[in-house]
Specification:
The complex is a heterodimer of chains A (210) and B (211).
Chain A lengths: L5 H4 L1 E3 L6 E3 L24 H21 L3 E5 L3 E4 L1 H10 L3 H30 L6 H14 L5 H12 L1 E2 L3 E5 L2 H18 L16
Helix pairs in contact in A: 2-4, 2-7, 3-4, 4-5, 4-7
Chain B lengths: L5 E3 L6 E3 L8 E3 L6 E4 L5 H20 L3 E5 L2 E5 L1 H10 L3 H30 L7 H11 L5 H16 L3 E4 L1 H17 L3 H21 L1
Antiparallel strand pairs in B: 1-2, 3-4, 5-6, 5-7
The chains are: A alpha+beta (210), B alpha+beta (211).
The structure holds zinc ion (ZN) (2 copies).
């Protein structure tokens, strides 16, 4: 199947409002969208570099996010530091295996799979791989869709901190791991937003223009 | 300069001819399968009604407590702001800011901006700062997380149910309704607003010529 691309037809769609404009001749100064005034680019500017930067930062922070406690529980009987995985174990042992699975998927699997998926997308697009392009495009849309759901644990801890506050009897405090975890979620979202899915389909010889 | 009958897929650059859709139909990209546009959906009046409804529910959800927790005669109840404040006090300021932005400020800003733009367009006037508002609406969309917060309240209820007496309050139901309303608002096709704005601007220009 032969597909006409906007680049081949000399068209330039506006990323902000969807208006299809005519691309300026090569070498001419960059245009702004006549409808919404956003600068028009053929591809998101600096997509690889920005996406890699956000992705590497999120990978680094993933370590303290899981190693440091995201909350501290203290009761009359015991003091406990809870990591993300520890929280999942508590839910599982307590019998709410369905929520244990939700939290496990949202907090541990989703960030990890997002990082792996973005790495695969960035590497394969850079090599102009023709391998499973439709599936890779679908993978990118999945990464974009699940992005915000990893914030789940952040909200759970915030609510527990506010509610479980019975002076010395029982108290929950947030731990430093929560900051790292929130940063991981934000950084992976920024990484997937910076990646331009059109790079999956680009032919190598069109690499010359920015 | 323009080729308005053409649609370019944002995900793979493939060019499509825009065609009429059956009700509820979605146009998918032939190359990568991404959604290009969908059939009409709701009109501007319904959009405005939903936006106003979500403003009311937003106020209710934030005024009333979400959950009450009772332990040995002591009752703790918390609103969204209570949770944000407690998170701030406990020493993780950045997280409190993140929660305040994603569950309070961005959704509120979305509702107010949508309401203002729709109200002005339906009165046949071009809203002030329309272009900036449209950019803000587009950029805020992925950072508005009321539905995630909603799931978070459910998880916390279960987590503390064994520890003490948990009572759901009005706030949690209001957040449930707000989740549905905001999901609908977030699925609005912003292009409908651009089109409406162009019509209004054209009418205004024509009126100016006549006068
Ligand atoms: Zn534009
Ligand atoms: Zn496509």
């Amino acid at each position: 199947m032969k597909v006409r691309t906007a680049t081949a037809m000399g068209l330039l769609p506006c990323e902000a409002c969807g208006l299809v404009c005519r691309a300026p001749p090569p070498g001419a100064p960059a245009l702004c969208c006549p409808r919404c005034e956003a600068p028009l680019h053929r591809r998101k500017p600096d997509s690889y570099r920005r996406s890699w930067a956000f992705l590497l930062a999120s990978m680094l922070l993933y370590i303290p996010a899981n190693a440091l406690p995201i909350m501290q529980t203290s009761t009359l009987v015991y003091d406990e530091n809870n990591t993300i995985l520890g929280g999942v174990r508590v839910l599982w042992v307590g019998g709410s295996w369905d929520l244990a699975i939700i939290v496990f998927v949202a907090s541990i699997c989703v960030p990890l799979l997002k990082m792996v998926a973005l790495t695969v997308l960035l590497l394969s697009a850079r090599r102009h791989s023709k391998w499973r392009q439709v599936e890779r495009a679908r993978l990118y849309r999945l990464v974009e869709f699940v992005g915000q759901w990893s914030m789940l644990d952040v909200f759970v801890v915030a609510l527990l901190v506010a509610l479980v506050n019975f002076q010395s009897v029982a108290e929950v405090r947030a731990g430093p791991g929560l900051i790292a975890f929130g940063a991981v979620v934000v950084l992976t979202m920024l990484a997937s937003m910076s990646f331009d899915p059109r790079l999956i389909w680009d032919e190598p010889e069109r690499q010359d223009s920015p | 300069m323009r080729a308005s009958s053409l649609v370019v897929c944002e995900h793979c650059d493939a060019v499509h001819e825009r065609r009429r859709l059956a009700p509820r139909e979605r146009a998918l990209c032939v190359r990568c399968g991404a959604e290009l546009y969908r059939a009409g959906g709701v009109d501007l009046y319904t959009m405005l009604a939903l936006t106003l409804a979500s403003l009311i529910v937003f106020v209710i959800a934030n005024v009333y407590p979400i959950i009450t927790l009772e332990l040995q005669g002591v009752a703790n109840r918390s609103t969204l702001w209570g949770a944000i404040h407690a998170t701030w006090e406990t020493g993780v300021g950045p997280v409190a800011v993140l929660a305040a932005l994603t569950v309070f400020f961005f959704p509120l800003a979305q509702i107010l901006m949508f309401g203002y733009v729709l109200f002005e367009l339906l009165r046949g006037r071009a809203p002030r700062g329309f272009v900036d508002i449209m950019h803000a609406l587009r950029l805020m969309r992925p950072w508005s997380m009321v539905e995630v917060f909603m799931l978070g309240t459910l998880v916390s209820v279960v987590k503390i149910a064994g520890l003490a007496q948990v009572t759901p309050e009005i706030g949690i139901f209001a957040f449930g309704v707000l989740t549905i309303l905001l999901t609908t608002i977030n699925s609005f096709d912003l292009r409908l607003l651009w089109d409406a704005h162009e019509r209004v601007a054209a009418d205004g220009a024509a009126a100016g010529l006549v006068a």
